[in-house]
Write a structure and sequence with these properties.
The complex is a heterodimer of chains A (112) and B (166). By secondary structure, chain A is mostly helical. Chain A contains three helices and one strand; from the N terminus they run E-H-H-H. Chain A has one domain: Helix Hairpins, CATH 1.10.287.3510. Chain A starts with a strand and ends in a 13-residue tail after the last helix. Chain B folds into two domains: 118 residues, NADH-ubiquinone/plastoquinone oxidoreductase chain 6, subunit NuoJ (Four Helix Bundle (Hemerythrin (Met), subunit A)); 41 residues. Classes of the chains: A mainly alpha (112), B mainly alpha (166). Strand 1 of chain A pairs antiparallel with strand 1 of chain B, so a sheet runs across the interface.
Chain lengths: 112, 166
């Protein structure tokens, strides 16, 4: 029993689009930030799938470590995402202290 | 077996992501995001990435989401206020999102034949294979991420600290 790689990629595309829609419709800063995390996770899934695909299609004979490359990418994305979450949430706390709200419609000082 | 596992956990993923959008309270959205991330860990396992599956649980479903729930509770965020939102998001944003999905799905479906398939009896990428690449070829980028994390910690502390105490 097997599953085509494309199904994983379609799932990744669906999750990414849901993240984009969440970014647009959510009005709370924290939930908007969660949608960004969802998009990062969707991209990670396609990285892992492509890494698996390279190994499965016989490219491993050309480059010995080619299957690991995709997973290494995901590893670094996870590290950067963890750093980004820490800094982003600190910024959210600072905004809440300064403005007393997390509604994105009221945090519009930089709007023309 | 693989097909059944894929369908179950892909279903969990999509249900969690849709629930994230539908919930109005941020803590419910955070919990559905944890469901999405845990199901993704199982999908990584199905793709033969054992280290990433565990790292996904520990780093994402663990550390990052604990940080999220901690901030939600710290700031005592209530229900999301319903506002009309921006008109640009409605008129351009949603068609653009649909177009993104359509284009990606079209490209994937056209290339479907050459992408290969996934089954359970393939060899997995062990942590040993991964560390051989990470600590030999990519040692410098790996060490740089630790510097990045350190800077992020310092930045987070500096940003979240109360003004006027030092």
């Amino acid at each position: 029993m097997h599953v085509p790689s494309s199904w994983y990629l379609i799932l990744s595309a669906l999750l990414f689009t849901l993240g984009v829609v969440g970014f647009l419709i959510k009005r709370n800063l924290i939930t908007v930030f969660m949608s960004i995390e969802l998009m990062l996770n969707a991209v990670n899934l396609s990285f892992v799938t492509f890494g698996h695909m390279w190994r499965a299609t016989g490219q491993a004979a050309i480059d010995h470590h080619i299957a690991e490359r995709g997973q290494i990418f995901v590893f670094f994305v996870m590290m950067v995402a963890a750093a980004e979450a820490a800094v982003g949430l600190a910024i959210i706390i600072a905004i809440f202290r300064a403005r007393g709200t997390l509604n994105v419609d009221q945090i519009d000082l930089m709007k023309l | 077996m693989h097909l059944v596992l894929f369908l179950i956990f892909a279903g969990f993923c999509l249900a969690g992501a849709v629930n994230l959008l539908l919930q109005t309270h941020p803590i419910n959205s955070a919990l559905s995001l944890i469901v999405v991330m845990s199901s993704l860990a199982v999908l990584y396992l199905l793709l033969g990435a054992e280290f990433l599956a565990i790292a996904q649980i520990i780093v994402y479903a663990g550390a990052v989401m604990v940080l999220f729930t901690f901030v939600v509770m710290l700031l005592n965020v209530g229900e999301e206020e319903k506002t009309n939102g921006s008109k640009i998001a409605k008129t351009i944003g949603f068609p653009a999102a649909v177009v993104i999905l359509g284009v990606i799905a079209d490209i994937i479906l056209v290339a479907q034949r050459s992408l290969g398939r996934v089954s359970l009896d393939e060899p997995i990428t062990t942590t040993k294979d991964l560390s051989a690449v990470l600590f030999r070829d990519l040692l410098l980028p790996f060490e740089l991420t630790s510097v990045l994390i350190l800077i992020a910690i310092l930045g987070a502390v500096a940003l979240a600290r109360k003004e006027g105490h030092s």
